[in-house]
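Human: Respectfully, please carefully check these tokens:
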Amino acid sequence: MRVEHEKRTVLCEKSFGATVLKVRGLLLVTQEEMAKALKMSPVTINRWENGKTEASYLSKKIFLKYCEEQGLSIEGVFL
């Protein structure tokens, strides 16, 4: 039996990386845990959060899907 949970809305930060960091904080997951869930490298998550690189369109779509699966709705989408 699937239980529906109310989605929490998260406002986008100034940058994609800051939004990733905010989401990680809300979900209480490490960079390693998020990277594994997204099938990416922890270094990639770190570079996004520190503004070293910008995520591709596909990576952002994967991140948004992950957020939805975790019950988060991102408002002010950065795509």
Summary: The two ends are 34 Å apart (CA to CA). The chain has a mean pLDDT of 88.
